[in-house]
Amino acid sequence: MLDVKPWVYGKLAASSALVAVLGSVDRIEFFYPTDPTNLPKLTYAETNQPSAAYYDDASKGAESSIEIHVWTAVNVSTSAISKIVDTIMHGLLFNTDFSGDFQEPETRINHRVLRYRRLLTALDLV
């Protein structure tokens, strides 16, 4: 298994544009927002990492699937944050698998789901 999740988090947290639009690096959280009333937030998780790139009968890589969620208040678009995330993830050579807006029915919080996928080897994470 490759440590893709901390690598991606490091790239997100290092983006001054992303941190500026979120207001603080503390608003980048793992999996689900700890306080969904303190928005905007960005959450991330690695949803799958199957072995890939077999050479000499051994796996030399992994195909990582990263899921990022953008959470914004009622009537606040997710687009500005999502565009920055897209720029970061495409710069890391991830492909977009899914990008869709949702609105949480009880709170009307805006919520965009972004899914990315890429084949990686250990050398990619340097």
Protein architecture, described:
The protein has 126 residues and is α+β, with helices and mostly antiparallel strands. The chain has a single domain (4-125), classed as STM4215-like. 24% of the residues lie in helices and 40% in strands. It is built from three helices and six strands. The protein has helices at residues 4-13, 16-22, 79-91; strands at 28-30, 41-48, 51-55, 58-72, 95-103, 110-120. Strands 1, 2, 3, 4, 5 and 6 form a six-stranded mixed beta sheet that branches. Helix 2 (16-22) packs antiparallel against helix 3 (79-91). The chain starts with a helix and ends in a 6-residue tail after the last strand. The model has no long low-confidence stretch (mean pLDDT 93).
Short description, anyone?
By secondary structure, this protein is an alpha+beta fold. It has helices at residues 4-13, 16-22, 79-91, and strands at residues 28-30, 41-48, 51-55, 58-72, 95-103, 110-120. It has one domain (4-125): 2-Layer Sandwich (STM4215-like).
Please, what is the average pLDDT? 93
Q: Which geometry do the CA atoms define? A: elongated
* Tally of domains: 1
Instruction: Note the gap between the termini.
Output: 15 Å
Q: List unreliable stretches of 5+ residues.
A: none
Largest sheet: 6 strands, mixed
Helix content: 10-25%
- Helix and strand composition category: alpha+beta
Count of strand segments = 6
What is the succession of H and E elements?
Answer: HHEEEEHEE
CATH class membership: Alpha Beta
CATH A-level architecture: 2-Layer Sandwich
Number of helix segments?
Answer: 3
- For this structure, the CATH topology is STM4215-like
Strand content: 35-45%
- Radius of gyration over all CA atoms, rounded: 15 Å
